[in-house]
Write a structure and sequence with these properties.
By secondary structure, the protein is α/β, with parallel strands linked by helices. Helices cover about 40% and strands about 20% of the residues. It is built from 9 helices and 12 strands. A 10-stranded mixed beta sheet has the order 3-2-1-4-7-12-11-8-9-10, sandwiched between helices. A two-stranded antiparallel sheet has the order 5-6. Strand 8, helix 6 and strand 9 form a beta-alpha-beta unit. The longest helix has 26 residues.
Length: about 325
Protein backbone atom coordinates (compact mmCIF):
# COMPACT_ATOMS: atom_id res chain seq x y z
CA UNK A 1 0.00 0.00 0.00
CA UNK A 2 1.63 3.24 -1.13
CA UNK A 3 2.22 6.23 1.12
CA UNK A 4 0.24 9.41 0.69
CA UNK A 5 2.11 12.59 -0.28
CA UNK A 6 -0.76 14.57 1.25
CA UNK A 7 -0.71 13.14 4.79
CA UNK A 8 2.39 14.06 6.74
CA UNK A 9 0.93 15.43 9.99
CA UNK A 10 -2.24 14.04 11.58
CA UNK A 11 -4.26 15.19 14.58
CA UNK A 12 -6.81 13.01 16.33
CA UNK A 13 -8.95 14.35 19.15
CA UNK A 14 -10.25 11.85 21.67
CA UNK A 15 -12.65 12.09 24.59
CA UNK A 16 -11.65 8.54 25.58
CA UNK A 17 -15.06 7.12 24.70
CA UNK A 18 -15.52 3.79 22.89
CA UNK A 19 -16.49 5.57 19.68
CA UNK A 20 -13.43 7.80 19.93
CA UNK A 21 -11.28 4.65 19.92
CA UNK A 22 -12.40 4.03 16.33
CA UNK A 23 -11.03 7.42 15.33
CA UNK A 24 -7.81 6.72 17.21
CA UNK A 25 -7.39 3.35 15.48
CA UNK A 26 -7.97 4.95 12.07
CA UNK A 27 -5.46 7.69 12.90
CA UNK A 28 -2.86 5.08 13.86
CA UNK A 29 -3.55 3.12 10.65
CA UNK A 30 -3.07 6.24 8.53
CA UNK A 31 0.04 7.29 10.45
CA UNK A 32 1.66 3.87 10.04
CA UNK A 33 0.72 3.62 6.36
CA UNK A 34 2.09 7.07 5.56
CA UNK A 35 4.89 7.32 8.15
CA UNK A 36 3.14 10.46 9.31
CA UNK A 37 3.56 12.28 12.62
CA UNK A 38 0.50 11.73 14.82
CA UNK A 39 -0.66 14.07 17.56
CA UNK A 40 -3.19 12.62 20.00
CA UNK A 41 -5.15 15.35 21.75
CA UNK A 42 -7.29 15.02 24.86
CA UNK A 43 -9.11 17.98 26.37
CA UNK A 44 -10.88 18.30 29.70
CA UNK A 45 -13.43 21.08 29.02
CA UNK A 46 -13.11 24.29 31.02
CA UNK A 47 -16.85 24.40 31.56
CA UNK A 48 -16.85 21.21 33.66
CA UNK A 49 -17.29 21.49 37.39
CA UNK A 50 -13.78 21.43 38.97
CA UNK A 51 -14.72 18.50 41.23
CA UNK A 52 -15.93 16.46 38.24
CA UNK A 53 -12.87 17.46 36.17
CA UNK A 54 -10.61 16.25 38.98
CA UNK A 55 -12.44 12.93 39.06
CA UNK A 56 -11.73 12.45 35.34
CA UNK A 57 -7.96 12.71 35.75
CA UNK A 58 -7.25 9.15 36.88
CA UNK A 59 -9.30 7.55 34.11
CA UNK A 60 -7.83 9.88 31.49
CA UNK A 61 -4.25 9.12 32.54
CA UNK A 62 -4.79 5.36 32.40
CA UNK A 63 -6.59 5.47 29.04
CA UNK A 64 -4.03 7.74 27.37
CA UNK A 65 -1.16 5.60 28.62
CA UNK A 66 -2.83 2.51 27.21
CA UNK A 67 -3.58 4.16 23.85
CA UNK A 68 0.01 5.35 23.40
CA UNK A 69 1.51 2.00 24.37
CA UNK A 70 -0.80 -0.01 22.11
CA UNK A 71 -0.18 2.28 19.15
CA UNK A 72 3.58 2.06 19.41
CA UNK A 73 3.54 -1.75 19.49
CA UNK A 74 1.90 -1.80 16.02
CA UNK A 75 5.01 -0.48 14.30
CA UNK A 76 7.41 2.43 13.98
CA UNK A 77 5.21 5.36 14.91
CA UNK A 78 5.98 8.94 15.83
CA UNK A 79 3.44 9.92 18.49
CA UNK A 80 2.94 13.29 20.14
CA UNK A 81 0.61 13.45 23.11
CA UNK A 82 -1.06 16.82 23.60
CA UNK A 83 -3.02 17.07 26.84
CA UNK A 84 -4.83 20.33 27.43
CA UNK A 85 -7.36 21.61 29.86
CA UNK A 86 -6.87 20.01 33.24
CA UNK A 87 -4.23 17.27 33.74
CA UNK A 88 -1.19 17.96 35.93
CA UNK A 89 2.20 17.98 34.24
CA UNK A 90 4.04 15.81 36.77
CA UNK A 91 1.72 12.83 36.36
CA UNK A 92 1.68 13.13 32.58
CA UNK A 93 5.48 13.18 32.42
CA UNK A 94 5.55 9.92 34.40
CA UNK A 95 3.05 8.50 31.92
CA UNK A 96 5.17 9.62 28.97
CA UNK A 97 8.34 8.10 30.46
CA UNK A 98 6.62 4.75 30.80
CA UNK A 99 5.10 4.94 27.31
CA UNK A 100 8.49 5.60 25.72
CA UNK A 101 9.69 2.16 26.85
CA UNK A 102 7.22 0.59 24.41
CA UNK A 103 8.82 1.95 21.24
CA UNK A 104 10.36 4.83 19.34
CA UNK A 105 8.30 7.99 19.60
CA UNK A 106 8.43 11.73 20.00
CA UNK A 107 6.34 13.14 22.82
CA UNK A 108 5.51 16.70 23.72
CA UNK A 109 3.16 17.58 26.54
CA UNK A 110 1.16 20.80 26.44
CA UNK A 111 -1.31 21.89 29.09
CA UNK A 112 -3.54 24.83 28.18
CA UNK A 113 -7.02 26.03 29.15
CA UNK A 114 -9.78 26.60 26.60
CA UNK A 115 -12.95 25.23 25.04
CA UNK A 116 -12.75 21.83 23.35
CA UNK A 117 -13.31 22.96 19.76
CA UNK A 118 -11.05 26.02 20.17
CA UNK A 119 -8.22 23.80 21.39
CA UNK A 120 -8.74 21.34 18.53
CA UNK A 121 -8.66 24.04 15.85
CA UNK A 122 -5.77 25.89 17.50
CA UNK A 123 -3.71 22.71 17.86
CA UNK A 124 -4.40 21.77 14.23
CA UNK A 125 -3.10 25.16 13.13
CA UNK A 126 -0.11 25.01 15.48
CA UNK A 127 1.14 21.66 14.18
CA UNK A 128 -0.01 22.43 10.62
CA UNK A 129 -2.10 19.26 10.51
CA UNK A 130 -2.98 17.89 7.08
CA UNK A 131 -6.00 16.10 8.55
CA UNK A 132 -8.07 16.23 11.74
CA UNK A 133 -9.58 12.87 12.73
CA UNK A 134 -12.61 12.72 15.00
CA UNK A 135 -15.13 10.13 16.14
CA UNK A 136 -18.90 10.39 16.39
CA UNK A 137 -20.07 10.49 19.99
CA UNK A 138 -23.83 10.95 19.67
CA UNK A 139 -26.60 11.53 17.15
CA UNK A 140 -25.64 14.48 15.00
CA UNK A 141 -29.15 15.49 14.04
CA UNK A 142 -32.65 15.51 15.48
CA UNK A 143 -35.06 15.42 12.55
CA UNK A 144 -33.46 17.81 10.10
CA UNK A 145 -31.78 19.96 12.73
CA UNK A 146 -27.99 20.02 12.80
CA UNK A 147 -26.70 20.04 16.36
CA UNK A 148 -23.89 22.29 17.59
CA UNK A 149 -21.52 19.43 18.39
CA UNK A 150 -17.75 19.74 18.70
CA UNK A 151 -17.34 18.12 15.28
CA UNK A 152 -19.86 20.58 13.86
CA UNK A 153 -17.89 23.56 15.19
CA UNK A 154 -14.53 22.21 14.04
CA UNK A 155 -15.99 21.69 10.55
CA UNK A 156 -17.60 25.13 10.37
CA UNK A 157 -14.86 27.26 11.84
CA UNK A 158 -11.66 25.29 11.24
CA UNK A 159 -9.51 25.39 8.12
CA UNK A 160 -8.41 21.75 7.96
CA UNK A 161 -9.95 18.69 6.33
CA UNK A 162 -11.88 16.70 8.93
CA UNK A 163 -12.30 12.93 8.82
CA UNK A 164 -15.36 11.75 10.78
CA UNK A 165 -14.85 8.08 11.68
CA UNK A 166 -17.89 5.87 12.17
CA UNK A 167 -16.62 2.38 11.37
CA UNK A 168 -13.80 0.28 12.87
CA UNK A 169 -10.50 0.61 10.99
CA UNK A 170 -10.19 -2.84 9.44
CA UNK A 171 -7.55 -1.73 6.94
CA UNK A 172 -6.72 1.08 4.52
CA UNK A 173 -9.60 2.72 2.69
CA UNK A 174 -10.27 0.73 -0.48
CA UNK A 175 -13.37 2.25 -2.10
CA UNK A 176 -13.85 6.01 -1.93
CA UNK A 177 -16.87 7.97 -3.13
CA UNK A 178 -16.54 11.65 -4.00
CA UNK A 179 -19.64 13.78 -4.54
CA UNK A 180 -19.18 16.71 -6.90
CA UNK A 181 -21.11 19.62 -8.36
CA UNK A 182 -18.20 20.84 -10.55
CA UNK A 183 -17.54 23.71 -8.10
CA UNK A 184 -14.16 24.91 -6.83
CA UNK A 185 -15.03 23.42 -3.44
CA UNK A 186 -15.63 19.96 -4.84
CA UNK A 187 -12.47 20.23 -6.95
CA UNK A 188 -10.49 21.01 -3.80
CA UNK A 189 -12.05 18.02 -2.04
CA UNK A 190 -11.31 15.71 -4.96
CA UNK A 191 -7.69 16.83 -5.24
CA UNK A 192 -7.14 16.29 -1.52
CA UNK A 193 -8.70 12.83 -1.72
CA UNK A 194 -6.48 11.86 -4.67
CA UNK A 195 -3.38 12.98 -2.76
CA UNK A 196 -4.41 11.46 0.57
CA UNK A 197 -5.49 8.03 -0.71
CA UNK A 198 -3.68 7.36 -4.01
CA UNK A 199 -4.05 3.57 -3.77
CA UNK A 200 -7.84 3.56 -3.39
CA UNK A 201 -10.53 2.97 -6.00
CA UNK A 202 -12.43 6.21 -6.61
CA UNK A 203 -16.04 6.66 -7.67
CA UNK A 204 -16.86 10.23 -8.68
CA UNK A 205 -20.61 10.91 -8.69
CA UNK A 206 -22.78 13.84 -9.76
CA UNK A 207 -26.48 14.09 -8.90
CA UNK A 208 -29.04 16.04 -10.93
CA UNK A 209 -32.60 17.22 -10.35
CA UNK A 210 -31.71 17.60 -6.69
CA UNK A 211 -33.52 19.74 -4.16
CA UNK A 212 -30.31 20.22 -2.21
CA UNK A 213 -28.24 23.28 -3.01
CA UNK A 214 -24.96 22.76 -4.81
CA UNK A 215 -25.94 19.95 -7.19
CA UNK A 216 -27.33 20.30 -10.70
CA UNK A 217 -31.01 21.17 -11.03
CA UNK A 218 -33.48 21.21 -13.88
CA UNK A 219 -31.50 18.86 -16.13
CA UNK A 220 -33.47 16.91 -18.71
CA UNK A 221 -33.11 13.26 -17.80
CA UNK A 222 -32.62 12.14 -21.38
CA UNK A 223 -29.79 9.81 -22.30
CA UNK A 224 -28.21 12.57 -24.36
CA UNK A 225 -28.16 14.90 -21.39
CA UNK A 226 -26.74 12.20 -19.16
CA UNK A 227 -23.97 11.44 -21.65
CA UNK A 228 -23.14 15.13 -21.90
CA UNK A 229 -22.93 15.45 -18.13
CA UNK A 230 -20.86 12.28 -17.92
CA UNK A 231 -18.33 13.73 -20.34
CA UNK A 232 -18.24 16.95 -18.29
CA UNK A 233 -17.60 14.86 -15.18
CA UNK A 234 -14.72 13.02 -16.87
CA UNK A 235 -13.19 16.32 -17.99
CA UNK A 236 -13.59 17.75 -14.48
CA UNK A 237 -11.95 14.65 -12.96
CA UNK A 238 -9.10 14.66 -15.47
CA UNK A 239 -8.37 18.34 -14.82
CA UNK A 240 -8.28 17.85 -11.04
CA UNK A 241 -6.14 14.71 -11.38
CA UNK A 242 -3.69 16.59 -13.60
CA UNK A 243 -3.30 19.25 -10.91
CA UNK A 244 -2.87 16.58 -8.23
CA UNK A 245 -0.21 14.82 -10.31
CA UNK A 246 1.68 18.06 -10.84
CA UNK A 247 1.52 19.03 -7.16
CA UNK A 248 2.08 15.64 -5.52
CA UNK A 249 3.75 13.52 -8.21
CA UNK A 250 0.94 10.96 -8.30
CA UNK A 251 0.77 8.03 -10.69
CA UNK A 252 -2.40 6.98 -12.49
CA UNK A 253 -5.43 6.49 -10.24
CA UNK A 254 -8.47 4.27 -10.65
CA UNK A 255 -11.52 6.50 -11.15
CA UNK A 256 -15.08 5.57 -12.10
CA UNK A 257 -17.60 8.25 -13.12
CA UNK A 258 -21.32 8.17 -12.36
CA UNK A 259 -24.26 10.45 -13.19
CA UNK A 260 -27.33 9.70 -11.11
CA UNK A 261 -30.81 11.19 -10.87
CA UNK A 262 -32.08 12.13 -7.41
CA UNK A 263 -31.22 14.33 -4.47
CA UNK A 264 -27.58 14.60 -3.52
CA UNK A 265 -28.04 12.58 -0.34
CA UNK A 266 -30.12 9.90 -2.09
CA UNK A 267 -27.48 9.48 -4.76
CA UNK A 268 -24.68 9.31 -2.20
CA UNK A 269 -26.58 6.74 -0.14
CA UNK A 270 -27.30 4.58 -3.19
CA UNK A 271 -23.69 4.75 -4.32
CA UNK A 272 -22.36 3.86 -0.87
CA UNK A 273 -24.50 0.73 -0.84
CA UNK A 274 -23.84 -0.34 -4.43
CA UNK A 275 -20.10 0.27 -4.48
CA UNK A 276 -19.35 -0.95 -0.94
CA UNK A 277 -17.90 2.44 -0.10
CA UNK A 278 -15.87 2.82 3.09
CA UNK A 279 -15.19 6.57 2.78
CA UNK A 280 -17.25 9.40 1.27
CA UNK A 281 -15.62 12.74 0.47
CA UNK A 282 -17.54 16.02 0.27
CA UNK A 283 -16.48 19.64 -0.15
CA UNK A 284 -17.72 22.40 2.15
CA UNK A 285 -18.33 26.06 1.41
CA UNK A 286 -15.43 28.50 1.61
CA UNK A 287 -17.36 31.17 3.48
CA UNK A 288 -16.24 33.82 5.95
CA UNK A 289 -17.86 35.82 8.74
CA UNK A 290 -21.40 34.94 9.76
CA UNK A 291 -21.99 32.92 6.58
CA UNK A 292 -19.19 30.58 7.68
CA UNK A 293 -21.64 29.15 10.23
CA UNK A 294 -23.42 27.50 7.27
CA UNK A 295 -21.55 24.28 6.50
CA UNK A 296 -23.71 23.22 3.57
CA UNK A 297 -26.68 20.91 3.50
CA UNK A 298 -24.98 18.17 1.44
CA UNK A 299 -21.96 17.98 3.76
CA UNK A 300 -24.13 18.11 6.88
CA UNK A 301 -26.45 15.36 5.62
CA UNK A 302 -23.56 13.15 4.52
CA UNK A 303 -21.84 13.39 7.89
CA UNK A 304 -25.04 12.80 9.83
CA UNK A 305 -26.73 10.11 7.74
CA UNK A 306 -24.24 8.08 5.70
CA UNK A 307 -23.18 4.80 7.34
CA UNK A 308 -19.53 5.07 6.25
CA UNK A 309 -16.72 7.39 7.30
CA UNK A 310 -16.97 10.90 5.84
CA UNK A 311 -14.19 13.33 4.92
CA UNK A 312 -15.20 16.99 4.72
CA UNK A 313 -12.76 19.30 2.93
CA UNK A 314 -12.97 23.07 3.22
CA UNK A 315 -11.23 25.18 0.56
CA UNK A 316 -7.85 26.51 1.63
CA UNK A 317 -7.92 30.07 2.95
Amino acid sequence: MSQSPGLRRLLTATDLSARAERAFDRAVQLALQNKAALTVLHVIPDELDPVYAEALKGAARKALESLAAQAMTRGELKVEIAIKGGLDREQIMRQVAEAVTHGENSVEVRIEPGSVYDIITDTAAEIDADLVICGVHRRLIIGDEWLGTTIDRVLRFGNRPVLVVKKPAEGPYQNILVGTDFSDESAEALKFAFAAFPSANFTLVNAFESSLAGFLTGVNASQQSIEKRLEELRQFSDAVLARAKAEYGLAELKVEHLIRQGSALEVLQQSVDEKKIDLTVVGTHGRTGIRRAILGSVAESAIAKLPCDVLAVRPKS
